[in-house]
Write a structure and sequence with these properties.
CATH superfamily of the largest domain: GAF domain
Helix content: 40-55%
Number of helices: 14
Strand order of the largest sheet: 3-2-1-6-5-4
CATH topology of the largest domain: Beta-Lactamase
CATH architecture of the largest domain: 2-Layer Sandwich
Largest sheet: 6 strands, antiparallel
Number of domains: 3
CATH class of the largest domain: Alpha Beta
Oligomer: single chain
Strand content: 15-25%
Length: 647
């Protein structure tokens, strides 16, 4: 805003005393300066502010033409002025916006722009190196005022008269004050527009990043990158290229004349080519004119675009490819373009990485789904085979068993000790096969969820005593001690006693198999709170055997699973490390789960020298039992202390 100093007021007095009253400088300058200052503070859009300002100056002082020119760069290092806005009296058409004038440093406008001084012309028709515009053919005098921002001249305020007019020093001083205000207005508007542009760009990048992050389809993301990039940095032709070993493969393109030839096009990576330079520099590089670049290979089916830019796609500190852009004109890319594309490329690289990982996971899931169905089919086929084999084996085995019993009772065989020994061996084998077949049938029922359960009040102490009695002979053969503790105090539960017998039978047989001769097996019972704080009974079967590797604690309950090498196992139901079909623990687990219980194993590890032992736990929920079942008919001796079965 112009300050009314003493010298300024003196200048006004001298102006008022001039003999040409039509050119007198009045308080209109102060009023106009104040009005322009208000406009500068309220209007920040350059396209709205400048037309209003030049129209005010032209109208208030009756000038023939008032225009604002801004400096820009011309070719070969020369400078030029571009007309931003012009105002003339009614009926006179001003020069069109965008009119351009190139000047040398020694010309009239060159002195204004390079030295930052005003330049009055009393007769423009005789002036050389002056922009004689056909639209301003009536102009006779002119005043060119620099638009200054500090030491920088950003343009020229052009004032012209249609009469020969002599601009006095005071008038020039006042008009220069208006020009300074116009310069401030222009710079403020430029800064505001630049800030608005940066804000729009940031919002655009944020929106683009969100859109890219939300897409995980590897077939769509690369093309989205090029489509979204065009809204940020315009280009003629673009492609997304990923490195595949020693080649770059185009996975998406935009602006190519032949889509089919462009897609999947591979370009060999050569030593010191533009891609290698970009990787080494780890930043964008560009070529101002590819026709002048040595080693540049132009495909004959592609139109020539002289400017090229490559921007690296970087993820996890590694260049995985690049975004390639071209423009028709030479030297069409700038540092600002490179910075914008690099910011965008960072988001694009993350989107590509996410899409690639998602694509890989999707393929892996599809393969897993296929493998799962194959395994389910094979498992069902195996279950069907087990069921069929068990039923088919049972019939001939029954025949063998029956004829063996008949043969053992025939005259001449009954009294023959050798024949009885042979027949006993045959019968033992038949019984062992019968036990294996029954186990196969049990597993089949568990797998097919056809296990028949007869729920009744059950006292686990009696179930375990029955198991101990069944295995007494095997324990004596192996010199093993079986101790049963604290089971008498356990409450009755609702369960299938026959199925629970199989559970503890298999657990004790397993303990016998993996405990060396002379070892101990202990069965304990307690009342606990199970899952969801439901009251339950817990039975543990502990042995002093070779133990179980923690990695196998869950696998041992799978069908046919065997610990150690099967080839070194001995055969037999209760021999040390004796072999078997691997069904016992699977059957126990299935029966416990059918009772809504839990079964698990604990062991420090497998060690055949130090014998750390293992413990199997069975937890079964307690359900209310009628009082008439409570210990009725139970052997009184069995209720006292604990029972010991030993050799």
């Amino acid at each position: 805003m112009i300050v009314a100093s003493a010298a300024y007021l003196l200048g006004l007095r001298r102006v008022r005393s001039r003999p040409r009253p039509e050119n007198n400088i009045t308080l209109q300058h102060l009023q106009l300066g104040s009005e322009i200052a208000r406009q500068v503070s309220t209007v920040l859009m350059l396209q709205e502010l400048l037309p209003h300002v030049v129209h005010l100056i032209q109208q208030r002082f009756g000038f023939y033409f008032v225009g604002v020119w801004l400096v820009d760069e011309a070719e070969e290092g020369s400078q030029a002025l571009t007309l931003q806005v012009g105002s003339c009296p009614p009926g006179v058409e001003p020069p069109p916006q965008g009119t351009r004038y190139t000047f040398e440093s020694g010309s009239v406008l060159g002195q204004v722009c390079t030295r930052g001084v005003c330049f009055p012309l009393e007769d423009v028709r005789s002036a050389k190196e002056y922009p004689h515009l056909p639209e301003l053919s009536e102009a006779l005098s002119a005043l060119f005022l620099p638009l200054r921002m500090g030491d920088e001249v950003i343009g020229v305020l052009d004032i012209q008269h249609d009469t020969r007019h002599t601009f006095t020093p005071v008038e020039i001083m006042l008009l220069q004050g208006l020009a300074d205000q116009v310069a401030v207005a222009i710079r403020n508007a430029q800064l505001y527009e630049a800030e608005q542009q940066r804000r729009k760009l940031a919002e655009s990048l944020q929106k683009i990043g969100g859109e890219l992050a939300s897409s995980l389809d590897m077939r769509q993301v690369p093309q989205q990158i090029l489509e979204q990039l065009a809204a940020v940095v315009p280009y003629e032709r673009g492609s997304v290229m990923l490195q595949r070993d020693h080649e770059l493969e185009i996975i998406a393109q935009r602006g190519f004349p032949d889509n089919r030839r462009a897609l999947n096009l591979r370009v060999a990576i050569r030593e010191d080519d533009v891609f290698q330079q970009m990787v080494q520099a780890n930043r964008p590089i560009w070529v101002d004119d590819v026709t002048q670049a040595s080693g540049w290979q132009q495909l004959d089916w592609l139109p020539l675009n002289r400017s090229w830019m490559g921007v690296p796609l970087i993820t996890k500190n590694r260049v995985i490819g690049m975004i390639s852009l071209t423009r028709k004109e030479a030297a069409a890319f700038s540092e600002e373009d490179a910075a914008l594309v690099l910011t965008f490329a960072g988001q694009a690289a993350i989107a590509l990485e996410n899409a690639s990982l998602y694509d890989e996971i999707t393929r892996f899931n599809a393969e897993l789904e296929k493998a799962y169905h194959n395994l389910a089919r094979l498992d069902q086929a195996k279950a069907d085979f087990i069921e069929v084999a068990a039923h088919e084996l049972r019939t001939p085995l029954t025949v063998i068993k029956g004829y063996t019993q008949v043969l053992a009772s025939r005259p001449g065989v009954v009294d023959d000790p050798d024949s009885q020994i042979l027949l006993k061996s045959v019968m033992d084998g038949v019984n062992r096969l019968h036990e294996i077949i029954n186990s196969m049938l049990d597993v089949s029922k568990i797998d097919n969820q056809t296990l028949s359960m007869h729920i009744e009040p059950t006292w686990l102490h009696m179930v375990v005593r029955r198991v101990a009695g069944e295995l007494k002979e095997a324990l004596q053969e192996r010199n093993l001690t079986l101790t049963v503790e604290d089971l008498q105090e356990l409450p009755w539960i609702q369960a299938d006693s026959e199925l629970l017998y199989k559970v503890f039978y298999h657990l004790v047989v397993n303990a016998i198999k993996y405990t060396p001769d002379g070892g101990h097996i202990t069965i304990r019972g307690s009342k606990v709170l199970g899952d969801d704080n439901v009251p339950a009974v817990q039975i543990s079967v502990h042995d002093t055997g070779i133990g179980i590797d923690p990695a196998h604690h869950e696998l041992i309950f799978e069908k046919f699973y065997q610990t150690g090498k099967v080839s070194v196992h001995s055969s037999g139901r209760t021999k040390f490390k004796g072999g078997g079909p691997g069904l016992g623990l699977a059957i126990a687990s299935g029966i416990v789960r059918a009772h809504n219980g839990r079964i698990w194993a604990e062991s420090p590890g497998h060690d055949e020298e130090n014998l750390p032992g293992s413990t199997f736990y069975v937890q079964l929920p307690i359900k209310p039992v009628a009082e008439r079942y409570a210990l009725s008919g139970v052997d009184e001796k069995a209720q006292k202390g604990h029972s010991i079965l030993e050799t």
